[in-house]
Amino acid sequence: MKNLRKQIQTTMILGVLSLFGGAFSHLALTDIYHGETDVSVEWNVLRFSVLVFLIFIGLALSTLRRTLREMP
C-alpha cells in the first residue's frame, strides 16, 4: 500500500509538470510560428514536454490499473 501511495504522488507531480509543459509548449510554438531566428531552444522545450507527457500518461495508466487490482 505504501508503494502505491508513492506511485500516486509521483503521478500527481508529473501531472503538474505536464500542465507547465503545456503552457511552455504553447509559448514555444508561438515563437516558432512567429518566425524567430533561432528556435533550437523552443524545439528542445517541445521535445522535453512530449517526453513528460508520455511518461505521465504511461504512469497514470499503470497507477489506475494497479489501483483497480488492489481494490476489494
Helix content: over 70%
Q: Note the gap between the termini.
A: 13 Å
Q: Calculate the mean pLDDT score and round it.
A: 93
> Count the strands?
0
Number of alpha- plus pi-helical segments: 2
**Largest beta sheet, briefly?**
none
The global form is: rod-shaped
- H/E topology pattern: HH
Q: Gyration radius, to the nearest Å?
A: 16 Å
Strand percentage: under 5%
Please identify the structural class as seen in this structure.
Answer: mainly alpha
What's the structural domain tally?
1
Low-pLDDT sequence parts: none
Fold and architecture overview:
The protein has 72 residues and is mainly alpha-helical. It has one domain (2-70). The protein contains two helices and no strands. Helix 1 packs antiparallel against helix 2. The model has no long low-confidence stretch (mean pLDDT 93).
Question: How would you summarize this macromolecular structure in one to three sentences?
Answer:
The protein is mostly helical and about 70 residues long. The protein is about 90% helix and about 0% strand. The model has no long low-confidence stretch (mean pLDDT about 95).
Task: Considering the chains and any ligands shown, give keywords for the structure.
single chain, about 70 residues, 2 helices, rod-shaped
Strand-helix topology:
Layout lengths: L1 H32 L6 H31 L2
